[in-house]
Amino acid sequence: MNTRRDGPGGPRTSRPGGSRDRFRHGPPSSGPRGVSGDHVVLYGWHPVSQALANEGRGLHRLLATENALARLTEELGPLRIDAEMVRPNAINALLGPDAVHQGLYLEADPLPGPELDELPDDALLLALDQITDPHNVGAIVRTAAAFGVAGIITTARHSPTATGVLAKSASGGLEHVPLVIVRNLSDALIDLGKRGFTRIGLDSEGETTLDAVGPKRPAVIVLGAEGKGLRQRTRDNCDVLARIPFSGEIRSINVSNAAAITLYALSVRGD
What we know:
Layout: E1 40-43, H1 45-53, E2 59-64, H2 66-76, E3 83-85, H3 88-95, E4 104-108, E5 124-129, H4 134-146, E6 151-155, H5 164-170, E7 179-182, H6 185-194, E8 198-202, E9 208-209, H7 210-213, E10 219-224, H8 232-236, E11 240-243, H9 255-265
Parallel strand pairs: 2-3, 5-6, 5-10, 6-7, 8-10, 8-11, 9-11
Antiparallel strand pairs: 1-4, 2-4
């Protein structure tokens, strides 16, 4: 699918899945001053509250305003980490004035991601072909969590880090949908094809419509980068190239919106 972007410390818990971290990808985040390159930064109500509720997420430092901390303890009960109560401007100083943090800032461990062959044999998956905008990737993660996607496949390079803006846009979805990091997306699609997955590439010039494809399991929906769409080798390793049957004058939409439409169209629904 050819797409374009619309508009511009407390106690520590052990990291699950061993010491090997397959979730963080790309270059280390420049992040707030003093944050270790091994940590991710989460801010805002949904990302922080969902991370605190996830026993598999290692925690390092929580900053909260008085009101935000009161809301957290009211909804979650005793927290897994001692919070440092601060004024909003202390969090602004770490994130910048434009970050909508809602009085919450958390430094945590990255979540470990599964290996490709550990994914269920009947799964619905997403694969991202060099989608680099963290707002879009975060929105895709949020939508994937809403539709029960078992995993999102992305590459070690040409993809944003699962922290900061991406985590805020995902609105807590990172705690529910694992990222599966691979070296080569085409090789991953080949492996999934051998396991019986239907590989559905979203493309505005696709030969069939999403309605004609219909719900399938197991399946992987492949989404292309903003503006460029799917790369040729990625297209070559899809079983079908499908398009959204637009009826209006504009035929290109934001990739996160396209992901939502596609997941709805291909979801198994009751009568």
